[in-house]
Design goal:
The structure is a single chain. 65% of the residues lie in helices and 2% in strands. It has 247 residues and is mainly α. Helix 1 packs across helix 5.
Length: 247
């Protein structure tokens, strides 16, 4: 026998409340919830609870929509920067092997002069930190080496610095977007306990009202209750959808 499943997520709670709101307007002569319930669902009242919940839920979706491209842009910028940092140090090391650059020059980029490995590029902070060291390091090496200085190229320090600035800006934009999303999700979550309690109260009221109608059989009561947001599941967990009897 199908049993009622109470809403237990933000999505299912919102679905229940909007269904009850629509049923109130669709069945004006057979309303199964109270006027106190309706006051919280009334879409004509800007400050009604459901309108506030819908706004907060919509704000979350808007924030997520803005966060997604910001995150994607950051990922692309960080990947480009990490690649150029890696190539910068690899090219420098190859130059050391050829005698073009000195091993001691690695120290200007915060590397040990005997370094045989590249800087840590495993995280976004590590990549940004490594990228920030290259332009100042190149300038310091130029000062230290004087006329003997051979600038790094392919990539040059200026190119890495430009990519670092771009990645840093995109990280700031991504963090701002994430903070906005977190804030909106927190505000929506703050309404959830009241929304859940309201949904349960509505469904309990609907079932009670229908239980007082002896002319209806159990499938008939469930069919009506579904219009008000109730969901019934079978013993195997599948959603129960009973057909309307044919004349």
């Amino acid at each position: 026998m199908p049993s009622r499943r109470l809403p237990n997520t933000q999505v299912t709670v919102l679905r229940t409340l909007t269904a009850a709101r629509d049923a109130w307007k669709q069945f004006p002569t057979d309303r199964l919830i109270t006027s106190a319930h309706w006051a919280k669902l009334d879409d004509a009242a800007p400050a009604s609870f459901l309108n506030r919940l819908l706004k907060e839920t919509g704000d979350v979706q808007t924030a997520l929509a803005a966060q997604a491209p910001a995150t994607s842009a950051l990922t692309e910028a960080i990947d480009r920067l990490a690649l150029h940092i890696s190539h910068f140090h690899q090219v420098y090391d190859l130059g050391v092997a050829r005698g073009v650059f000195t091993a001691a020059g690695r120290a200007h980029y915060d590397r040990d002069f005997t370094a045989s490995t590249l800087p840590d590029l495993s995280t976004i902070p590590a990549i940004l930190a490594a990228g920030a060291r290259i332009a100042p390091g190149e300038a310091a090496r130029a000062t230290a080496e004087g006329a003997a200085h051979v600038p790094m190229a392919l990539p040059g320090a200026a190119q890495v610095a430009a990519l670092h600035a771009d990645a840093a800006a995109k990280r700031a934009a991504s963090e701002t977007a994430k903070l906005t999303t977190d804030t909106e999700q927190g505000q929506a979550a703050g309404l959830y306990p009241e929304a859940h309690a309201l949904a349960v109260s509505i469904l309990n009221t609907v079932e009670f009202q229908l239980s007082e109608r002896p002319e209806l059989d159990a499938p008939g009561r469930r069919r009506i209750a579904r219009a008000w947001g109730a969901v019934y599941v079978n013993d195997d967990g599948t959603v129960s959808e009973e057909p309307v009897p044919q004349p």
